[in-house]
Design brief:
There is one protein chain. By secondary structure, the chain is α/β, with parallel strands linked by helices. It folds into 2 domains: 4-135, Glycogen Phosphorylase B (Rossmann fold), CATH 3.40.50.2000; 150-337, 3-Layer(aba) Sandwich (Rossmann fold). Helix content is 40%, strand content 14%. The strands form 3 sheets. Strands 8-7-6-9-10-11 form a 6-stranded parallel sheet, with helices on both faces. The radius of gyration is 20 Å and the shape is globular.
């Protein structure tokens, strides 16, 4: 329902259901800001857009819409109380989800009529694949891409060509996340990284999605006329995925914090370098099992504080999120240069 990374990680569950039940009518309950990504999936009949801030009215609307759809099976791929409520409101006689031990809010698992076995792993993708195998009778779980159509892929190639003409290869896509997010790498570090990469002849694309535009524009102005392009406030997630796929075809690489765009890049086949601090990359970082399709790497501070990773969204370190600030630009350049 929410968080771009969670939606992307749930794609194997959708693909497994589509493969196992090709004649079924499939729908996805999702928040509006992520609906565009799933609405282009081949084989998805419809989406139910849940307005998270809509209060009781939003819940009543969702309940009416789900009652009209009348699903026989509802699958919870998120594992919290909000998703459990949607599962219950679906009215489905069969309600499947993760093993109760793998729910973020375990009380919600009480609404299930059937649960997947424990995944046996620590990563979110391992949980999703275990759920995918369970709901598909063991017939799926490996596919994790956003199902881009040939026309979307072609548009992604055209956009990359407009940004970097003459078939420039090895584009480094740098994702700037909001300064208030403890997972963010400082913009000054990204600026230094962009300068070093550009000086070495590597094309650089700065990406900031909605809510991050101000930082992206400021950094683009600071970099001036250097061979650096910027894509600011990109709202079309499928268009962004297609651009990532085009960059992958040209030998590109993605670098950014452990956040939704990183997972989208991996799903689109773009090798990713995760800048990790408070998040545990073993739990939510780029999925290493996809290395044959999109190689991954994780860069941390050389001497991270004892509290990292803490998994918190609010830093309690007396000096702030030093685990991110202390990631050395040189270390990131070295990893990117090896890709």
């Amino acid at each position: 329902m929410s968080h771009l990374g969670d939606v992307v990680c749930a794609l194997p569950v959708f693909h497994a259901l589509r493969e196992a039940y090709p004649e079924a009518a499939l729908a996805w309950v999702v928040q509006p800001e992520f609906a565009g990504l799933v609405e282009g999936l081949p084989g998805l009949q419809r989406t139910f857009r849940f307005e998270r801030r809509g209060g009781l009215r939003a819940w009543l609307r969702l309940r009416r819409e789900l009652a009209a759809f009348a699903p026989e099976l509802a699958v919870d791929a998120q594992g919290n109380l909000k998703s459990a409520a949607a599962l219950l409101f679906s009215g489905a006689p069969r309600r499947a989800g993760l093993h109760p031990s793998e729910w973020r809010e375990r009380t919600g698992a009480r609404v299930l009529t059937e649960a997947a076995p424990p995944s046996g792993g620590t990563h979110a993708v391992e949980r999703m694949r275990a759920l995918a195998r369970f709901v598909s009778g063991g017939r799926g779980g490996a596919r994790a891409d956003p199902g881009l159509a040939p026309a979307e892929l072609s548009a992604g190639r055209e956009e990359l060509e407009r940004l970097f003409p003459c078939g420039a290869r090895g584009v480094a896509v740098l994702h700037l996340s909001p300064p208030a997010d403890v997972r963010s790498w400082p913009a000054a570090r990204f600026g230094e990284l962009a300068r070093l990469l550009a000086a070495g002849g590597r094309p650089v694309l700065l990406v900031s999605v909605p809510g991050e535009e101000e930082q992206g524009l400021a950094l683009a102005r600071e970099l001036g006329e250097r061979p650096v392009r910027h894509l600011v406030g990109q709202r079309d997630l499928r268009r962004l995925a297609a651009l990532f796929a085009a960059a992958a075809e040209r030998g590109g690489v993605f670098a950014g914090a452990d956040s939704g765009p990183l997972h989208l890049a991996c799903a689109a086949g773009l090798p990713a370098v995760c800048l990790a601090g408070p998040q545990d990359a073993r739990r939510t970082g780029p999925w290493p099992a996809d290395a044959g399709r999109a190689a991954v790497a994780v860069v941390r501070a050389a001497e991270p504080p004892a509290c990292a990773p803490c998994l918190r969204r609010i830093c309690r370190h007396p000096e702030g999120p030093v685990c991110m600030r202390d990631i050395a630009v040189g270390d990131v350049v070295a990893v990117l240069s090896a890709r």
